[in-house]
């Protein structure tokens, strides 16, 4: 099992915040920016390296960190997003009620679940997705993509799979 931590900037309504749901369920620990370890995998859209199964051992040893900050003010989370070992998620489609159907506009819960799935912890991913009504929908929409990314052996192969997916979608 991969230890999940969340650096929460508390920028959304706590009653509907997916990061808060994960923390309240005790499936993640809340941490401060200074607690992000240099060897932890930090999910960030600013990384030039895609998350892949190659990162599994690092995640098992040092954990996975999600940064919960608003997409409208993502720069506000830049310090946290630049810490640790940054990894970007490949193309996925949001199923959350705020950004349903939008590419790459995942909630923190979706991002963490997707990362766990790609890292080979499908059961842990599904446990986190079960915290929200639309968790099954996220898997349904992204199942084929997640499987392709999970089967990729490296970050380079994840990017190649993403390119193929994009070509199929937008050709």
Tally of discrete structural domains: 1
Anisotropy-based shape: globular
Number of strands: 5
Give the uncertain stretches in residue-range form.
none
- Report the span from N to C terminus: 39 Å
Main-sheet strand order equals 2-1-4-3-5
Number of helical segments with 4 or more residues: 7
User: What fraction of the residues are assigned to beta strands by DSSP?
Assistant: 5-15%
Rg, please? 15 Å
The major β-sheet equals: 5 strands, parallel
Name the helix and strand elements from N-terminus to C-terminus, one letter apiece. EHEEHEHEHHHH
Structural class: alpha/beta
Q: Percent range for helical residues?
A: 40-55%
Mean pLDDT: 90
List the helices and strands and how they pair.
Blueprint: E1 4-8, H1 18-24, E2 29-31, E3 41-43, H2 56-62, E4 64-68, H3 78-81, E5 85-87, H4 108-118, H5 122-129, H6 135-151, H7 155-170
Parallel strand pairs: 1-2, 1-4, 3-4, 3-5
Helix pairs in contact: 4-5, 4-6, 6-7
